[in-house]
Write the structure tokens for this entry.
Amino acid sequence: MRSEFKLCLRLGGSLVALALGVGASAARAQDTAPAEAASTALAPPAASAAEPGADIVVTGSLIARPNSVAVSPIVTVSDELVQQSGQITLEDSLNQLPGFTPSGNAGTGGQGAGGRATLNLRALGSNRNLILLDGRRLPLSDINGNVDINILPESIIGSVDVITGGASAIYGSDAMSGVVNFKTDRYFDGVRADIQNGNSFRGDYGKFNASLALGTKFANDRGRLMLALSYADRDPLSGAQRGFFADKVPSSFIGTGAFVPNALNLPSQAALNGVFARYGVTTPINRTLNLGFNDNGSLFVQTGAINYQGPRTDAYAVVGGNVRMPVGPQLQILNAFERKSAFAKGEFDLTESLTAYGQFLYVDTTVTTESGSSLTQFAPFTTIPVTNPFIPADLRTLLASRPNPAEPFRWSARYVGIGDKGWDENYRVQQYLGGLKGTITGGWKFDAFVAWDETVHDQSMFNAVLKNRVQTLLNAADGGASLCAGGFNPFSIANATRLSQACQDYVTATVNSRERLTQTQAQAQVNGPLFDLPAGPVQLALLAGYRKNSYRYDPSPDLVSSNVEAVVGSNPARGEISVKEFAAQIDVPVLSDTPFFHELGVGAAFRYSDYKPTGSVKSYEFDGRWQPVEALLIRGSYQRAVRAPNIGELFSPVTGTQLAIGTPPAAIGDPCDIRSSARTGANGGQVRTLCLAQGIPAAAIDAYQFATTATGGNIQGNSGLTPEKANTYNIGFVFNPKASSPWLSGFSLSVDYYNIKIRNVISTINGLTVLAKCYNLDGSNSSYSNANEFCQLIQRDPTGQLVAIAQPYLNLGALDTDGIDVQLNWSLKLSEAGLGDGSGRIYASSAIGWLNHYKVQTLPGTASQDFVGTSTIGRPLPRWKALTTLGYGSDVFGMGVRWRYQGKMRDISAITTPAAEQVGVKAYNLFDLFSTVDVTENVQLRAGITNLFDKGIPFVASSQNGTDPGTYDMVGRSFYVGAKFDF
């Protein structure tokens, strides 16, 4: 029923948009409104007629001013830019801007972590920038304080202001790298409807969204009300649909199953040679190597593919002479997504000086994720007793030759006989807000509100393989036939895929978990003039607030006991933090309308926050602005910013995650692996000795291979954390000549330098960093001592296999970054230039980011490493990034092209393991076409093509999957059509 409903919506949306949009090939470029003197717009924004004499609340300030001057660099993104991107989620639109680094989004993230769409300014982390709606905090989406912007339906957004610099003194903790403030539409009378449908040119990635907004004024315009409903839906995209993934992630776990020898209880060499001699193999076989199972009962050596008789195409391959199972085609590289939302806001003028207002938000989002249709195994591993009736005869011969012939043996496999593993992750968010605002006296105003919100995340994993059920079948004397039809025979592809439905049902279950977050807020603010100076009034804003966040996580017993294959266990969690805050901001106009001082002003802000349980923190800010002439604004600010530890960093119990380390030598892998650059390099002997000290048996050390491409990461909170502190400053200028010449009247330029230095950084130690530092891949353990603090974080089982890497939250080293942002806008009205009649206009806009440094100090006292110009999964750091738009438009139609550019990057291994640097990523260019046409005064159509030249997927060597789905276009050339109606 659900799929039929979505199909009807999509078909109906396509018919409406196409019927109205035939022949539409242009985009409207509207007259540029007077932009904020300190902000820049990325596309010609719609005129936003402020009421005469009304104060404008500037994002990044508590003070309402009679003009819209802001000292912080602000980029204003219009709703048109969001629509022209062709996306149905806000994060995909905003991540095209240079100031953003792609973080989690609704389309990426498997293993139960998909669905959350977060924003990451300056690559400093998604929990170091603050996400607001009309200047107020949004509901949290996870234990680490992140906000999922999927909860914001695009239909309610009028524009987005992005402050790319610290704002803790103004807004509080979390605003270290900046603020993203989503502004809702103004109140209106009437009905607005919007519908959009799109797909890839291959027809395999459909996207649909529709919204309906209703606005009304009543009681002689004393009351205003707006209601918006929206629906969005997106298809999944699997690796099998893109040839790029055909050979990616060649897993050592294979569908044939494999016998994993115990180095302390190996088969005899004579027995092994005898078995393989019957196959015609005369070369001695290494006793420590995994042995797979052919369909005829014979054995093969996985490393070297000796006597391998299985398939070599589709899901199976011989890679580098070794039998592997590429899982890239099984992965869901972009997740299915469905969102239903309702938003309402209203206000009523109780008196001429007092207004009551309220707001309601409800969102129901479901994201379906997959991380491979055939499961692997994680520790603790299941074993097979020698009494199992399905053991092939040749394997029995080898088992009997061991020193302890009765010992159960470990096996490895992919569960190819089980249905696809997948999750439905459902997020239900609700927020209720009410307040009063008005004027007091003498120009003073106040605004006070209370709010409560809740986020409930229900996660259901389908076809979860339960280890204890598998072990019961393997231990059964009849192979489990008495428990389910046919029992469980894991030896060979043919047997594994013949698993009966009864046995599939026996070993699998739907595993559920729930997390719940709540937030309570109360805030009051007053602002107004203190006294007048010749240049204008000195203004003051005061704010007091209280906020409380609570968290609860309840996993199923199978997750707690680590009883689910390919999922690291997790424990129940509880936590609560609260804060009482006071803030003040002052603005002093020093000079105005004098030679060389069209305006000169200074300002300051201070915030005191008392957190429970971590104590109090203080932040402050100083700023200045100078307009020597009206056309030029020079601005700058300095800020001491803070970020208090969040619930997850303080209280999370040991929580398992999957840590991708890759397969050596193409990736770092397990450095003890004989294929790794650590073992084959000049210091291979010392690495070997270190690996022995860590517990890898001497009998296995010279043939040791890590079985898969990932291991466990054990994250744990730390109640002893102290707040992060940062010094941030920016300096820049805005040039807007406002010339009489039509060629220059539409020109503006802003250039801003930013510098952010964070100390006491709260973070887990990256697992790859632990491996690099323990095994001296970056020169930090030159003695190759197992007593090294990083080596102590590595856990191995008795056979030497890498089980987990501890990743506790700590106050670690530092993050330093600086760079320059450039924003250029130009437009020309053709009639004013004598080039035509009518309203035709051409325009250009470019946002350019230049990254000078991105330095990471892992621990206090250690040397910093500069990662600028490097690529890794989830944190690309190109030196150059730009978004440029060129277009033509009129009152009726127009068209434009958007160019997305990202500079070339070296692989992150150039910094972490310079002796084994992998191939980098070339410069990345995408071009999009967009268009709209006004059919009537009330009907506007739009259409566009994204990734016009069908740019291929870049290879990212440091990524487990070979690329970064959050950064690069996985889909290829796509189109969208849409229609907007006003009644």
Remarks:
- The chain has a mean pLDDT of 86.
